[in-house]
Structures are given as structure tokens and as C-alpha cells.
Design a protein that fits this description.
By secondary structure, the chain is α/β, with parallel strands linked by helices. It is about 40% helix and about 10% strand. The protein has a nine-stranded mixed sheet with strand order 1-2-6-5-4-3-7-8-9, sandwiched between helices.
């Protein structure tokens, strides 16, 4: 038996955690039921399936929602140090509020100061970088961190790992956006790195804390990486690499995309499509004024 007087936050979270309900489907549900989430949760399947985007599978998921169980899970997650940021809440990152496909809810290991997001920079790239690209990434992340710019990446092997590591080595702030739940770190090889990031910055995910990563979630998290930041830097990528998703999301979100003139296919495609090229010896000099430090050579 569903309770009908649950707090709106709990209702939002319950719907956002349904595996097949995205932002557009939830908006359709809210419009159809005149913004009444209680009505959504209490509706019979035949009525739910009148809503655009809702079929038997989603209707069944909504019918199976147990708000009492979710309330218990929330208490357990908070006891484990996991906070929930709801869309529209005061701690929800401002840059994401400016995007069209923003997550309904975010799980985080720490609530970050709003100032963190004002000049955050994403650094992404291939899982198998060249030695030069790895060196560029480490130096770039260190320079940004020393200039009090938050470095955001996706915790993947390769460039992402170098970006997080560089920021940490400079005692800076770094945020890892996961394609898994923050209680189920992926990839396993980066578990120790994730713990270091949690202590200095934050782990962030739109996924249920205990869910594992899959291809769809890994691609989806890229829009969060780009959406959190004021600029996206693709250090090195194949033409069909995962970092190219981040670049495409960035363009859709109105974020400038930067890369380096390296021979990798993704780099050359980005340059041909209009990405701004950073010089290897002093990349921060080419970033916009609010992101580049006063002197990038210090």
C-alpha cells in the first residue's frame, strides 16, 4: 500500500530511480497529472499508459514503488555519508540548472560550495593515452588546481585518472562523475583513487548508490561532466572514443570545447569541427579569462 502523504522530495527521488524514467518522461507524467506526484504514484496502469512515453514496463515500475522502503534506504545512505541533491534544491550545482537534460537527482559524497562550480573545468580523454597526452593532462590538472579551479572528470582509466591525480597532487579540488553508484565504484582499479577524491573533493552520480555501471550509464554521465563545467578539454581521443560524447554534450549545452593538436583521430575531428586548440607548453593561456589564472606560468 503506497502512502499518499509522502514528502515531494521522496516522490521525486522514487521516480528518478526508476530505471526507465528519464527527465522527459517525468515531465510528461507531471503535465498529465497536473503536477500532482501523489496522483502519478496512485494511478492505475491503464491511466499511466495514456501518458506519452509510458508503456507497460514503466507503468509496472511506478506501480511497484515503495516509498516506505525508499525512506529507509535514504536513512541508510545518509548514514554512509551519501547526500542527495534534488533538482531545484539550493545545493544542486548551478551550471547543471542551465542545461536542458539535467538529472532529476544527484547522489554525492559531499555537498560542494557553490563557488566550486563557477569556474570548474572538465578534462577527459582516452583510456589508453600516449605518454605525451598523459603528461599534458597531469600538468594541466596541476596548473588548474593551483589556480583554485575544480577539475571534473569521469574516473575512467587513462586521461580521467591522470586528471584526477594531477589535481590531487597539487592539493586541489577534483570531482569524479561516475557511471555507477557511488557505493559501487567503477572501475574497480580506481577504487583507491575514488577514496582520495572523496576525501578532497566529491564523488557524484545520478545512479542508485548500489547500481553497477553499464554502457548507457557511462554515456549518460558524460552530459553531467560537461554540464557541471564552464569548459571541456578533450586531451586525446579516438574519433569514436567516449570523450567525444562529452564534447558533443558540451556543444549542445553551450560549453566551449578545447583540445590539443595531437594526431589522434578525435582530436583532429574536434579541430575540424571548430574546437579551440590549446598550446601544449602553456594551455591555460588560451582559456577564457574567468578560467585561466592571472599568470599561467607560475
Amino acid at each position: 500500500m503506497k502512502q499518499v502523504d509522502a514528502a515531494p522530495q521522496l516522490q521525486w527521488l522514487a521516480l528518478s530511480l526508476s530505471p526507465n524514467i528519464g527527465a522527459s518522461t517525468l515531465n510528461n507524467l507531471r503535465e498529465y497529472f497536473d503536477q500532482d506526484l501523489d496522483a502519478v504514484l496512485q494511478a492505475p496502469s491503464y491511466q499511466l499508459m495514456r501518458v506519452r512515453g509510458v508503456g507497460p514496463k514503466i507503468a509496472s515500475e511506478i506501480g511497484a514503488i515503495d516509498l516506505d522502503r525508499l525512506a529507509q534506504d535514504l536513512e541508510a545512505w545518509r548514514a554512509d555519508g551519501i547526500e542527495i541533491l534534488m533538482r531545484g534544491g539550493e545545493h544542486y550545482p548551478q551550471p547543471l540548472k542551465e542545461t536542458s537534460d539535467l538529472p532529476l537527482a544527484l547522489f554525492t559524497s559531499r555537498i560542494m560550495s557553490p563557488q566550486i562550480w563557477s569556474n570548474a573545468v572538465a578534462i577527459v580523454g582516452t583510456r589508453e593515452p600516449s605518454k605525451e597526452a598523459r603528461y599534458i593532462t597531469l600538468q594541466l590538472a596541476m596548473q588548474l588546481a593551483r589556480a583554485d579551479r575544480a577539475v571534473v572528470s569521469g574516473l575512467a582509466l587513462g586521461i580521467d585518472t591522470a586528471a584526477h591525480t594531477g589535481a590531487l597532487s597539487a592539493d586541489g579540488v577534483t570531482v569524479a562523475v561516475l557511471g555507477s553508484g557511488i557505493g559501487n565504484i567503477y572501475p574497480e582499479a580506481n577504487r583507491s583513487l575514488a577514496l582520495r577524491i572523496r576525501d578532497k573533493g566529491a564523488l557524484l552520480s545520478e545512479t542508485h548508490p548500489h547500481w553497477s555501471a553499464n554502457a548507457q550509464r557511462l554515456v549518460s554521465r558524460n552530459r553531467i561532466v560537461s554540464g557541471l563545467c564552464r569548459a571541456v578539454i578533450v586531451v586525446e581521443s579516438d574519433a569514436d572514443g567516449g570523450a567525444m560524447y562529452t564534447a558533443r554534450f558540451a556543444v549542445e549545452q553551450g560549453r566551449p570545447v578545447y583540445t590539443f593538436d595531437l594526431p589522434a583521430g578525435g582530436n583532429q575531428r574536434l579541430i575540424a569541427e571548430g574546437a579551440r586548440v590549446l598550446r601544449r607548453d602553456d594551455p591555460l593561456r588560451d582559456l577564457p579569462g574567468n578560467l585561466a589564472p592571472t599568470s599561467s606560468t607560475e
